[in-house]
Amino acid sequence: MNKSKKEYIVYDKQENVVMLGTSNEITKKLGITIGTFYSYVSRGDLSKSNYKIFAVS
């Protein structure tokens, strides 16, 4: 079974695109844990996080 990886887009606090990639690629590039990554994905506001992450596929 070949399962395609979900891709995410990352924005910074100024709403600039930081990167597009898989959860693994993003956690490595940003130096965050997978738990932190998923908290950013589920979080609606930027008050406590440096990034806003949305699923794109």
Polypeptide structure, described:
The protein has a domain at 1-15 and 24-43. It starts with 7 loop residues before the first strand and ends with a strand. It is built from two helices and three strands; from the N terminus they run E-E-H-H-E. The chain has a three-stranded antiparallel beta sheet with strand order 2-1-3. It is an alpha+beta fold.
Short overview:
The protein is an alpha+beta fold and 57 residues long. It is 30% helix and 26% strand.
The percentage helix is: 25-40%
Strand order of the largest sheet: 2-1-3
Distance between the termini: 18 Å
> Average pLDDT across residues?
87
Low-confidence sequence ranges: none
Assign the structural class, choosing from mainly alpha, mainly beta, alpha/beta, alpha+beta, or little secondary structure. alpha+beta
Number of helices: 2
Task: Report the order of strands and helices.
Answer: EEHHE
Architecture blueprint of SSEs:
Layout: E1 8-12, E2 17-21, H1 23-30, H2 34-42, E3 51-55
Antiparallel strand pairs: 1-2, 1-3
Sum up the structure in keywords.
57 residues, alpha+beta, globular, 26% strand, 3-stranded antiparallel sheet, single chain
